What does this fold into?
Amino acid sequence: MKRILVTGANGQIGVELVPYLRRLYGDANVLATDCRAASPEMRDSGPFDLLDVRDGKAFLDLLSRFKADTVMHLAGILSATGEANPQLAWDVNATGTFTALECARSTGAAVFFPSSIAAFGPNTPPRMTPQDTLQRPATIYGIAKVTGELLCDYYHLKYGLDTRGLRFPGLISYVALPGGGTTDYAVHIYYDAVSKGSYTSYIAKGTFMDMMYMPDALEAVVQLMEADPSRLVHRNAFNISAMSIEPEQIALEIRKHIPEFSISYEVDPVRQKIAESWPDSLDCSAARSEWGFSPKYDLASMTADMLKRVREKLARS
It folds into this structure.
């Protein structure tokens, strides 16, 4: 990668991936795009343009003018928000991905596509979910992710396009609060622990989901995109995860730092149903063997860093 266009740059991943890429490849070589205006930090650190990913003409124009060799296609609507407006979620997530691939085909750019554990469904083996297995998701978000995975495979097989992707678990970060995802609780719990000393979870006790700390996720994106293509058997939709955890485990780890912390439950039936349709844990052996995936953070080290960073952030606000 030398020149990179990022869609959905204002999202939870984008606000951290853009500065990470700019540090690695140079500020001028990473074009951030989104349908919303950029933050001053993103706008002042490198190029930014407004872009609706469904607008193929505008997309292709930007891609061509910037002479990008890689598209990081992050734009999308998350799971819980998607269930509230499935028509919009399909339009942005599926049509936007098709548009990104078509534009990349025109210019020869490589494409990174972020899939998700939402691409699995209630009939998928829930523990150590295989890399290649049954995918019958029960949400419009998951359906669009499976569509994106298949489209990326198709564009590689039919047109030789360099498409690569990851199935992200829940991503935990102190930089930007997530919006509209099922795994969002695993971020909010740290903020409430610091600011309130308690947290009310909308996900039920004992509900395991895969998670990863954002620094590991950012490193995985670059590691995959820079990997020797001859080693990639799967190319798209690699299972990746750092930990399989449930709310009580996070609470217990937080209590090592904030002994008085307490957790209670008011389960949201919509997000709980989504969570129960996803795997408890993933088999990440393909990612490890094909391009050396190896996350650095576990629950203990992530919790210590999250609490430190959240305290610092809240103190500045």
Notes: The first strand starts at residue 4 and ends at 7.
